[in-house]
Amino acid sequence: MQARRDRFFVVVLAAVAALLGGACATPPSMPVTVQPALTQMVQPYSDGLRKAGISSVQVHGNGARVRINTYLGDAYLRYPSGLGAVSFSVYVDPAGIEVDSDTYSAANSAQYESAIKAILPAAIKLATENNARILELRRLDRG
Fold this sequence. Notes:
Blueprint: H1 2-24, H2 36-42, H3 46-51, E1 54-59, E2 65-70, E3 73-78, E4 88-93, E5 96-100, H4 109-142
Antiparallel strand pairs: 1-2, 1-4, 2-3, 4-5
């Protein structure tokens, strides 16, 4: 009887730990409000984003990191120090660019513009280098 009770508590504790661990690992929600003004700010980078194979750039408002999604997988950048934290997502496809942000306003436009000017060139550079490295490794593996 004692062994059964001990096993039950172990199972319950494992389930609680799994639930708590999953709750802690939940990524922040991404913005969903389309922002035409931000789309215009990003437009000069659209060709570079496409050439680098980038399908999205996600900037979380916590200022910790930037996620870059390419056709060969994800890459990450550190959020540039010295910039105020902003949150936005850039979506790239052959038909156009869309930028979403739930916190953008005309009052913080300069902060977003600074972040875009710092992040997107770095994202393009990282994605280009990372994709070239992956393709070279694949070529060597086929060898």
